[in-house]
Amino acid sequence: MVDPIHSELHVDETFGAPPPNRLSVLMRRVGKVALFLLSLFLFILAITLMKEGARELAPLVRDRFHVSNVANSLGFGWLFAYLVMSGSPVAAAALTFFDAGVISRLQTFTMITGSRLGASFIVLFIGFVYVLRGRDKSTSLSMGLLSLIVSGTTNLLAMILGLFLLTRGLLDPIQLHSGALLTSATDLIFDPIVAFVLQLAPRWSLFLIGFVIILTSFNLFDKCLPEMSLKESQVGQMSRLVYQPWVMFLLGASITLVSMSVSVSLSILVPLSQRGFVRRENVIPYIMGANITTFVDTLLAAVLLNNPDAFTVVLAEMVSIALISAVILLLFYRAYQLRILRLVNAISNNNRNLALFMGMILVVPLILMLL
Reduced to 3 states, what is the DSSP secondary structure of residue 11? Predict the structure, then answer.
C-alpha cells in the first residue's frame, strides 16, 4: 500500500538477501485480490444506496446549501471535497444527485469540477505534515502548491470547454451501450440489500450510509496497491525518463488509472521530491495526466446509474481536460512551466503570500456558494 503520510519511498540497498517465503507471498497476493473484490463490492453497493436516497435530499441541497446554479455547485463540490479529503466520493455524489433530478446537467459538471479542485488540497496537507516532521519547508509545500495550481488552471480552463461541449450536445451520441446489462446484473445482487436497509432506516439516510461506504471502499482500494520500492539501478533510469514531458504525462495517467485515486498518485510526489527522485519542473505533465484518468471511477459510477446524461457529463470532463492538457504540452509547455514555477516559488518562499493563498482557496468556494 502506498501510504503517502506514514510510509516513505525507500531505496533498496540490500543485495543477496534471501528470497521471501513463497507461501507468504502467495497469501499476500490472495489477500490483496480479496480486498480489491471487497472494495469493488462496497463501491457498487454505495452507489446503489446513494442513488436510492439522493432524491430525498433535494430540499436540503437546494434550500439549505443554495445549490441553484453552476457557480453554487462548483463551490459546493469544492468545499465538500475539502471536508472528506477526497474528490471521487463527491463526484459520485454529484452523479446520484443528478440522477435523482436534484441538480441539472451543467450543475453536475461544475460540482464534479469542484470536487477535483478540492481533492488537490490533500497533497498540500501532506506537505504540511512533512514540514511538521522537520522536513524542508520549500520542497514539501511546493509540491502541494504545484498540484493545486496545475490542477486549478487546467480544470478551470477545461470547465469552460466542457460547458460548451455539453450545451452544444457534441458528446451526446457517444455512449457505453453495455451499461444496462451491467446494472441489471448488479440489481439482482444489491436491490435486496437496499430493501433490507430500508426496513431499518429512513430513505433519506441511505445517501449518507452510501457515502460512508464509498469512503470505506476507496480506503480499502488504497490498501490493495502494491508497495513501492526502488532499487539504485532503477533510480538512474527514472532520472532519465522524468525529463520527458510526455513520459511523465503517461506515467501520471497510468498510476492514477491503476490506483483510481488522484490523491494517491499525486501524494507520492511528496516523498519522491524529498528523496530527490523528481523535481518540480518535471512533475507538471505528471499532474496533468493524473487529472484525466482520475475520472475512471466516476465513469464507472455513471455506468452503474445507467443514465446516459450522467455518462456524457463525465465524458465531457475527461475530454475537456485531455484537450486542454494536450494543447499546453504541445504549444505552450515551456511558457506555462516557467510561469507556474515562478508562482509556486513566490508563494512558498514568503509566509505572507502563503497565508494569502491559503485564505484564497478557502474563501473562493465560500463566495461561489453565495452567488
Answer: strand
- 81, amino acid identity: A
Model pTM score: 0.79
- Whether 157 is in a domain gets the answer yes
The SS3 of residue 72 is helix
Please, what sign has the CA dihedral across residues 297, 252, 360, 332?
negative
- What is the C-alpha to C-alpha distance for residues 64 and 230, in angstroms, rounded to an integer? 50
- Answer yes or no: is pLDDT of 147 > 50: yes
Is there a contact between 111 and 163 (Cβ–Cβ < 8 Å)? no
The verdict on residue 77 lying in a domain is yes
Structural domain range at position 120: 21-370
Could you tell me which of 285, 264, 292 has the C-alpha nearest to residue 337?
Answer: 285
Question: 114 lies in a domain?
Answer: yes
- CA pair distance 365, 77, nearest whole angstrom: 9
Domain count, the chain: 1
Q: Is residue 14 part of a domain?
A: no
* CA 357/CA 96 separation, integer angstroms: 32
Average pLDDT rounded to a whole number, residues 357-361: 87
DSSP run (H or E) holding 120: none
**120 vs 111, which has greater pLDDT?**
111
Mean of pLDDT values over 227-254: 62
**Torsion angles phi and psi, residue 231, rounded to 5:** -90, 160
C-alpha span between 291 and 57 (Å, rounded): 29
The answer to whether the beta carbons of residues 229 and 12 sit under 8 Å apart is: yes
Least Cα distance to 42 among 92, 82, 3 occurs for 92
| Most confident listed range (150-164, 215-229, 291-305) | 150-164
C-alpha 281/C-alpha 220 separation (Å) is: 32
